[in-house]
Design a protein that fits this description.
Belongs to the isocitrate and isopropylmalate dehydrogenases family. Keywords: Oxidoreductase. With about 325 residues, the protein is an alpha/beta fold. The chain contains eleven helices and twelve strands. Bound molecules: adenosine-5'-triphosphate and magnesium ion (MG).
């Protein structure tokens, strides 16, 4: 039996995930859904953001639907999402950016780079180690190549880096180029800062962009501009044995508890989960329902509307389930 973990987490995660879960249950009527409590709220309640038991449960699942967790500025508090990505070795963060005029995918290395977690925090000097390894660069490059081949858009694979300043990026860039060459893919090597501007000016020139951990994080928030904001962007975190699906946005404490968060990023993440499990046509049906709801102007305040999270979720669900 298919087992799905549902992690709401903190803040707006608690509001958007139920809307996505409802859709998952519709497409997976026979699956077992396991609720896992983790995050900052859980840390406040129990002193542990994610118990060993919870981590074990996550590892036993076929897929994880994940909301968002708050990471407080406390230097003692380790990001729980980073821990999960490491423990489950979710090395590829896939972030599609899609709207009427844009259709691209950011493939972000998810386990090392500036998010290595190797840090020394001092009063006078703090350092974070930026780690780039051959093996991790190769596997993310291979993932990007396979996505590029699958999408077959006839556009070059773009490598985003800063090898002129960060010598650690020379290894990343060269491995990406070498892997792409073995697959006969045309490649375009770009500095990440120039890329951030160019993708906003000419999004149609882009198909698959592969980059390191923090650059990918920043680039995908930047691309939020192309799609009406963070509330629209889904993502997948894929490893060899595990897969976790989450909206690109965080827990947004500023709007949490008001029922106005946009659930579309979470719903699209559920669509990616279903695609990953090979559920036929689910992703297309979900996207069509999202588009119809957007066209009706049933949208949350971040998109200029006055609908609630639930209004949007229910509308999309009704279209999927054929009740509307
Ligand atoms: P975190 O530390 O958990 O990442 P954050 O304060 O950085 O929290 P984000 O969720 O990353 O918040 O989002 C940044 C801003 O974008 C939020 O302050 C919020 O106003 C807006 N935002 C993010 N997601 C959504 C959403 N789903 N619907 C509406 N607005 C959103
Ligand atoms: Mg954030």
């Amino acid at each position: 039996m298919t087992k799905i973990a549902v992690v709401e987490g903190d803040g707006i995660g608690r509001e958007v995930i139920p809307e996505a879960e409802k859709i998952l249950r519709f497409f997976l009527p026979d699956a077992e859904f396991v609720r896992v409590e983790l995050g900052f709220d859980q840390w406040k309640k129990t002193g542990s953001a994610c118990s060993k038991e919870s981590m074990k449960t996550l590892k036993e699942m076929d897929a994880i639907l994940f909301g968002a967790v708050t990471t407080p500025p406390d230097p003692e508090y380790k990001s729980i999402l980073l821990q999960i990505r490491h423990e489950l070795d979710l090395y590829a963060n896939i972030r599609p950016v899609k709207s009427e005029s844009v259709d691209l995918v950011i493939v972000r290395e998810n386990t090392e780079g500036l998010y290595s977690g190797i840090e020394e925090i001092g009063e006078e000097r703090s350092t974070t180690l930026r780690v780039v390894t051959r093996d991790c660069s190769r596997r993310i490059a291979e993932k990007a190549c396979s996505i590029s081949i699958q999408r077959n858009q006839n556009k070059p694979l773009v490598i985003g880096h800063k090898a002129n300043v960060l010598k650690s990026d020379i290894l990343f860039r060269d491995i990406c180029i070498a892997v792409a060459e073995t697959q006969n893919l045309s490649i375009r090597s770009m500095f990440i800062d120039a890329l951030c501007l160019d993708v906003l000016l000419h999004p149609d020139r882009y198909d698959v962009i592969v980059t390191t951990n923090m650059f990918g994080d920043i680039l995908s928030d930047t691309c939020g501009y192309l799609t009406g904001g963070l509330g629209m962007l889904p993502s997948a975190n894929i490893g060899k044995n595990h897969a976790l699906f989450e909206p690109v946005h965080g827990s947004a404490p500023d709007i949490a508890g008001r029922g106005i968060a946009n659930p579309i990023a979470a719903i699209r993440s559920a669509a990616m989960l279903l695609e990953h499990l090979g559920v036929q046509d689910a992703a297309e049906k979900i996207e069509a329902a999202v588009q119809q709801t957007l066209a009706l102007g049933i949208v949350t305040p971040d998109l200029g509307g006055n609908a609630s999270t639930r209004d949007v979720g229910e509308n999309i669900f009704a279209k999927i389930s054929g009740n509307q």
